Amino acid sequence: MGLDLVLEESPETAVHPLRKDDLHPSLSDPVLDTMTFLNEVTHRFPDAISFAPGRPYDGFFDTEQIFTYLRRYLDHLAAQGATEQDVRTAMYQYGPTAGQIREIVADSLRKDEDIDVPAESIVITVGAQEAMLLVVRALTAGPEDTLLVASPCYVGITGVARLLGVPVTAVEEREDGFSRADLEAAILRERARGRRPRALYVIPDHSNPSGTTMDLPTRHALLEVAERHGILLIEDSPYRRVSPGTPLPTLKSLDRSRRVVHLGSFAKTVFPGARVGFAVADQQVVDDEGRTGLLAVELAKIKSMVTVNTSSLSQAAVAGALLAGDGRLSVLNAEPAAYYGDAMRTTLRALDARLPEARRTALGVRWNEPTGGFFLTVHVPFRADNAALTRSAQEFGVIWTPMTYFYPQGGGHQALRLSTSYLTTADIEEGTERLARFIEAQASAS
Amino acid sequence: MGLDLVLEESPETAVHPLRKDDLHPSLSDPVLDTMTFLNEVTHRFPDAISFAPGRPYDGFFDTEQIFTYLRRYLDHLAAQGATEQDVRTAMYQYGPTAGQIREIVADSLRKDEDIDVPAESIVITVGAQEAMLLVVRALTAGPEDTLLVASPCYVGITGVARLLGVPVTAVEEREDGFSRADLEAAILRERARGRRPRALYVIPDHSNPSGTTMDLPTRHALLEVAERHGILLIEDSPYRRVSPGTPLPTLKSLDRSRRVVHLGSFAKTVFPGARVGFAVADQQVVDDEGRTGLLAVELAKIKSMVTVNTSSLSQAAVAGALLAGDGRLSVLNAEPAAYYGDAMRTTLRALDARLPEARRTALGVRWNEPTGGFFLTVHVPFRADNAALTRSAQEFGVIWTPMTYFYPQGGGHQALRLSTSYLTTADIEEGTERLARFIEAQASAS
């Protein structure tokens, strides 16, 4: 086959620009467009009060903290007998792929969460987002392997699945909670279709987006279903230590048969810019020749092809913060947790004041009442879509997130997510006032 | 379909542990095992001199530099009029997915590399490794889309392709360099098989692993082939600014038709632990409705599903270093570049002293003579495999990397890679002495 032939065949391929259709299909995922839309609305209406961003409140940050955290970690290395050369290597060189602060994180998990695992079963990641990528990639070997997600669910997990071409099956979280029966039915349906569900992704505590928390019987039921059907549970935990009160036990601390891969994030408990999270993967993996190793080792292999290792500077800052709190995120976050609890209570009280029981029943409006976390769900008697959001921002000066964004297989058309973490009390009061007016107007218009 | 039925069907699925065969096939890539093997050899023979690690020499690092760099960036923000609140947001909050130091990197590219692109066409990544993942993912839409790589090639790019299930086709780099004819032939073969090669990955300057540098006519030829056949060139550039002398122009600076995605890394020029790299992707992307945007925007969308954003702390440290050098990596790295140049020359001179021309010709040994970078290739008259490596480490106290590791489709059986970047002069002298003795012994044994 000669050159001439090909030149005739493909002159048009030399034409610029690139066609979007020629790029990976995950880039045409409507979720990406909706996020862009939300950003545009926020940009177009800068005076609107936004209940959209799931960011930590930054009033607790102080620029000098960075330096304090780093010094604290350097002191720790010195106290452990590190030489100048060791310290330079730790701070500047390529580091171990699985992370250099695993002992410190393992210690924190023991103290805070009653999760007692060896450091070797932990992989430090670039935020929990990278941990999701590693786990989903490791667990899916072929086209029949699928991921189950509690739905509505965090867009990061469905994004990872799309990026990797892994089919996602939604298991709906009902208003009265996640149900064991729904999960088992989903597993059976998947298998009947010749597919192999590998894991279920859940946020048991103060879930993003719904704000719901799984009760203890549900946690035990999930573990039992996972054990019975041979799937893993991917437990994400970003809001546990920034919520008031004592949380229920994690799935991982209840896990007696290594069915749970636990994901953690320091984005809310230390700071988001560090981009440090982790996976606890103490599952045994056995190969054809009977050699065994930890799933964490496999995750680290994948990580070596994604980010090589997590920023040593970021790891040092997070370790410094943990060491400053004697490993207890619960202690380190006592003040923020109280703050977020107040913000949530203020929001719920303000909603109740503006849309009292009788009024909201008449309208067909209701909301859940999380005791912590960053989010709550408001059900409304109209389609909470992009058009409604634009009207809300433009005419009423209040922004929220359409719940539909979080349903990978459709749903949530009449619900919206409010985030309470980033606003001041004054903005919450004014924002709920505006929201109530919008809901009244929109309900009577539809 | 009832529960009972399924319980009968799948009791064995509940059995632990996980089977390796049930994990993603990239985890069974032999390259991962060879890397493990290399690490084990290094661990088993701690007194061996190792020419294996491609790490920067860390004699130039100083712990206090971190603090100086961070302060320098904070001063820069203040000088630009940032308020205390702006600084806290920049350092602690979630940042822009595409990065917060793009202007500073764009400035550096203009000054050092004559690459003049708007900051919007840059995406700051967690090392060049993440940039490879984003680019390969973006460019591959379906199973027919393939990646071409100059072979031997960096394992990070083939790792990314395996992780994403993208077929890789090797285009062999011959001893006299990379050839336009080989590239065109590979493109034609791919198309004849119904596949669509999307891009070619190359390291034009002091390549890892071979150490070769493309001459200027080859650079122009690659651009012409890319233009003619409608593929992109992914240009990686980690060693340009840590090599002595003035490098040849980058492909990107010669690119008149936006055929080049340029990747950069600050691992060698600032420090590896920061994990900061970038992609320059100024290609236009057009969708079905005729809307256009930059490829960089699409890469950032993918990044939002991989790491959300690059550590703000790491970005601040790198920006501080760049600002301290007035944006010129060439100036900032004058001393390291001279050091690495010396190390390479010392290695070549020492090899020549131990295996002079006549002797190496008789043995069938030869090597290339890079003028910079971290690596060179030694061709030997025996199989440079794991068994040979073990003998070399055990009996001669010297470690190197088998070149076969870097051939995605086989090859390089009688070649080894030496890295000269991490060793002291004394170790280079002693190490080459040991290596010469090993080569003599192995050559006479085979």
Automatic annotation (TrEMBL), chains A, B:
InterPro entries: Aminotransferase_I/II_large, Class-I_PLP-dep_aminotransf, PyrdxlP-dep_Trfase, PyrdxlP-dep_Trfase_major, PyrdxlP-dep_Trfase_small. GO terms for molecular function: transaminase activity. This is PLP-dependent aminotransferase family protein. Signal peptide: none annotated. Pfam families: Aminotran_1_2 (PF00155). The lineage of its organism: Bacteria, Bacillati, Actinomycetota, Actinomycetes, Kitasatosporales. Its cofactor is pyridoxal 5'-phosphate. Keywords: Aminotransferase, Pyridoxal phosphate, Transferase. Residues 90-435 form the Aminotransferase class I/classII large domain. Gene3D superfamilies: Aspartate Aminotransferase, domain 1, Type I PLP-dependent aspartate aminotransferase-like (Major domain). CDD domains: AAT_like (cd00609). It comes from the Bacteria. It comes from Streptomyces justiciae. Coiled coil: none annotated.
